[in-house]
Amino acid sequence: MTTSIQTERIHKALDTFAIELPSWGFSNTGTRFGKFIQDSAATTTEEKLADAGQVHKFTACCPSVATHVLWDFPEGLKSTPAVMASAAKAGVRLGAINPNVFQDQIYKNGSLGNPDPKIRQAALDHILESVEIGKQTGSRDVSLWFGDGSSYPGTQSIRHRKQWFTEGLKQTHAHLSPQQRMLVEYKPFEPYFYHTDLADWGMSLLLSRHAGPQAKVLVDTGHHYQAQNIEQIVAWLLSEDMLGGFHFNDRRYADDDLTFGSIDPYQVFRIFNEVIGFERETGKRADIAYMIDQSHNLKDKTEEMIQTAITAQELYSKAVLVDHEKLTHYQMKGELIDAEECLKAAFSSDVRPAIREWRKGKGLAEEPLQAFRASGYTDQAARLRGKKNKGAVASYA
Ligand code: PSV
Ligand code: MN
Asked: Whose CA is nearest to atom 1 of ligand 1?
């Protein structure tokens, strides 16, 4: 492949590549051991959306923002017009709507899997309100993550809980508009440590199938055991038309929320390669929501999201350089070394000059991080928000 063909491929791919930002990545969060407060962190939904707007302004690849209903819609459905107005002001649109059925005290023994029917109903009511919010915001996806599980053997009926989940998700599906989808996320551990009701992709797949055709699986890259081959899960879900989206982040030990591609960029590349390979072979675009699910308490939050968006563009661009015809040929012939080298050649290509050129063509700064820093946005945000954020430290301590 000549350099100009490579550049053209990258430019074409970047014209349509988009990745969604999480509102919860812009406010002060931490670990269960505490928080390190940043003066410039967002203190309201409006500020989170404004910061997300900055990421999009400098990268042109983050046009939408996922929200968490409990954290971003303080009055539920009633908050929708205000949140939509804040998004429009920030130059972004609202993406996936995330119900929160893990934080309230009533959820000690779970939400849709809770043995108490009143609590299952409360969880369902909140999910259905989130579906309605999604209808008003024009968001396509309602993104469901359940912390449900148990921490001690024998304390819960795994089979009954599976049945309650099946019923709850079916009812959720029944309320979707024809334009909406529900994405069912899985995670093998945390907050419970003995059993988790939706522990892996197979469980999400089965429950999604039971729920209905608009239910798809959501793969959060941090939600796997250490040695798991995530690109294989991706390939299988694609071939079953059951992959709805990703929550991207990186991990070293558990669900660490580290910057996307910071630990294992080759894995991200292999995941993108599965998607692009599927698209080339089938001639159709995979209907996938790419989303980031990270929140950072050490790096500056907006800068970190810009860094993540840039990394995503780079790794996606490398994946579009894979010569699939050659790769298939080597695979069919059993040419193992040539097949592997074919993949590695794309991964080791320096795609940054082509991406800089693409940005120039769009009227963007060639180096988004530097341009954002030079804008002085963070200092200004720190001046405006510092007091409020310091107040949060005081009340925390
Ligand atoms: C849970 O770990 C998760 O990945 C879910 O997607 C939540 O919605 C998100 O993180 C934020 O807590
Ligand atoms: Mn997630």
From this structure: 145
